[in-house]
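Try this one yourself first.
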């Protein structure tokens, strides 16, 4: 169960991370990256960020690229939310494959 503080911080991080990815993916035509969820640890030191990537064929490649650039992304997040947060949490990125899972179930039901 998340506390009110955890919910507020995760919403703030989700909003700012979506803006960061929106500006960075403008350079990649045909790629859409959205932040579907942010889960933050109880001590507010680790943020697990789930990315929904379109097209899903490139999701592993893009997630690897994002994980390679965690330090620069965390720095950019820190410049945006540094006034609201005392400590910028460590960022961990994961692919949110729930849409692929839903499509697969839909396809199986139509058979």
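Now uncover the answer:
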């Amino acid at each position: 169960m998340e506390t009110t503080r955890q919910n507020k911080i995760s919403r703030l991080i989700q909003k700012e991370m979506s803006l960061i990815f929106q500006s960075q993916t403008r350079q990649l035509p045909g790629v859409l990256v959205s932040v579907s969820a942010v889960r933050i640890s109880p001590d507010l030191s680790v943020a697990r960020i789930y990315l929904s990537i379109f097209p899903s064929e490139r999701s592993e490649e893009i997630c690897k690229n994002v994980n390679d650039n965690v330090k620069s992304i965390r720095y950019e997040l820190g410049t945006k939310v540094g006034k609201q947060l005392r400590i910028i949490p460590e960022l961990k990125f994961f692919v949110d494959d729930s849409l692929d899972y839903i499509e697969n179930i839909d396809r199986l039901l139509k058979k």
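Discussion: Helices lie at 4-24, 59-68, 70-81, 98-110. The mean pLDDT is 89.
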